[in-house]
Every structure is written in C-alpha cells, then in structure tokens.
C-alpha cells in the first residue's frame, strides 16, 4: 500500500531563504524609492570606482522603460512568497520549480548587471552589490535545499524497500517452518511403523 512521504527539510534552510528574500526586498525597495525620488540621495560614495549615483542614473539602470531596481523589487517579493514556510511545506511541485527558476534567473541577472557595472558604466554601486551577493547566496541555499530533499527521498525509499524485503522474507520463512516440520513428522511416523 503506497504511503505519502513527508517532506523533511532542515529548519535552517527555511529560515535562511526567507531571511535572504526579505533582505533582498529591503535593499531593492530602498533602491526603487531613491530611483523615483532622488538617486543622488543614496548613502554611498559618488567618486572613484565606487559611485552609486553613476550606476543608478546610467542608461543601463532602465530596461524597456522599467527601472532595474523595480524589477529587482518584484523579483524579491516573488522570492519571499515561494520561500515562505507555507510554500516550503507545500507538496506542490510547481512551487519547487518556480523557486528554482526565479532564483536561477536572479543569479543570471546578477552576472549581467556586474558586467554592465564593470565594463559599461565603469563604476560599482554598493547597494547593488548587496543585492547581488544576497541573490547568489540565496540561489546556493536553494540548490542545497533541493539536494537535501532529494537525498532524503532516496533514503526513505531505500529504507522502505529494505523493510519490505525483510518483511517478505520473514513471512516466507514463517510459512516454510510448518511445512518442514510437517514433512519431518510424516517421515518419523513412517520409520516408526516399519520398526513395528
């Protein structure tokens, strides 16, 4: 009879992914607000290689008319939803796929944005770097979570298979016992009758 396997996930993964998602929400919300109000108000140096204003006001800070900061905020909100405790407990496979797809897309976007900062704008934004690091670490933790769930599932199936096999051998051994004793009993009777 088939039984439903319960998802076993280390508690630190749930806490870490939710915490990182909320951190991403905070960072991208700050960048979004300053983009629409005063980009020069960012608490960040504006001279040399570290120049948040140069990054956040460049032509690369907008994609198809939408600020990169706003795209990041929407992404972070989505990650918070799929990394909520309820989402981690849910058996729905689409949530796992959405979590992996969103975090993977975020990681790819990070590589693109870092390339833009280093080779197009020639400046680095500290707040953007905070978002980038948070995104990469979040992607890594989600990969670790999937590996943990996969190993837990295979271990559970192996254990159930072993217990099933031992149960079957025990049952067959229990059935063989009476048959053998019955046969030996018949042989004993025949020997006794010949002796008389």
What does the radius of gyration come to? 31 Å
Terminal CA distance reads 55 Å
The backbone outline, from C-alpha atoms, is elongated
Structural class: mainly alpha
Q: Total number of helical segments?
A: 6
The count of DSSP E runs of length 2 or more, i.e. the number of strands, is 2
Residue windows where pLDDT falls under 50 for at least 5 positions: 1-6, 164-174, 184-196
Mean pLDDT: 82
Compressed to H and E, one letter per element, the order equals HHEEHHHH
Let me know the largest β-sheet. Answer: 2 strands, antiparallel
**Biggest sheet strand line-up:** 1-2
- Strand residues, percent: under 5%
- Please bin the fraction of helical residues: over 70%
